[in-house]
Amino acid sequence: MEFYVYEHWRPDTNTCFYVGKGTHRRAWVMSKRNLHHKAIQSKLISAGLSVDVRIVISNLTEEAAYLVEKDRIAFYGRENLSNMTDGGEGGMLNPPQEIRQKISNRMKGNKWNVGKKLSEETRKKQSNSHKNKKFSDEHRKKLSENALKRPKRTLTVEHREKIRISMLGKNSRPMPDHVRQAIAKSKKNKLLAEKAA
Questions:
Q1: Nearest Cα residue to 41 out of 82, 85, 84, 87
Q2: What does the buried/exposed string (b/e) look like for 89-119 if buried means 16 or more CB atoms within 10 Å of the residue's CB?
Q3: What is the per-residue pLDDT across 67-109, written as a single tens digit (0 to 9) for each?
Q4: Among 146, 16, 23, CA closest to 81
Q5: What is the value of pTM for the model shown?
């Protein structure tokens, strides 16, 4: 199975807010995301926007994809992302208890995790209200005007530089040797498998 590493960007601020690894359509599936990610999705929907999906690199083994994912999260800084971990283990179907505890501890006390629990009926109503939602031109205009009135997020010089470098392309910043080696090994194994077939 081939894996890839992807990023979710906010078109309203032109910033990356999530890094992940996946296969098939995973990068474009917005369900089964953490609450922080969903909160950003809601903000974008209310502004008439959607998540910008960008593939960083593809045709990788799972091991190589984990390394690239970890490298990209470190590059942006997890404090600037909605990722719950440093990467490299987030996609495991059955993570170890230590990882589960880290995720649980990180979720506790977050403002998006505070409040009353919604009933199943209310959750379904909210979910259905967002499905196939189409905005009129007048409504889009109002959303745009309201977005312009909101105070703009101030980015640090360091964060702006990271974004600038990432926008130049994946070859503008040299990858760590261990990531490069994992990618090379992944591609070599793929070629050998194709020749053997």
A1: 82
A2: ebbeeeeeeebeebeeebeeeeeeeeeeeee
A3: 888 888 888 888 888 888 877 664 444 555 665 666 566 556 5
A4: 16
A5: 0.51
CA distance 181 to 5: 16
Q: With residue 17 as reference, give the H or E element that holds it.
A: strand 15-22
Distance between CA 182 and CA 14 in Å, rounded?
30
User: Cβ(27)–Cβ(52) under 8 Å?
Assistant: no
Provide the token pair at 129.
């209200």
Whether 4 and 58 have beta carbons less than 8 Å apart is answered as yes
Domains in the chain: boundaries: 3-196
- DSSP E strands in the chain: the ranges are 3-10, 15-22, 52-60
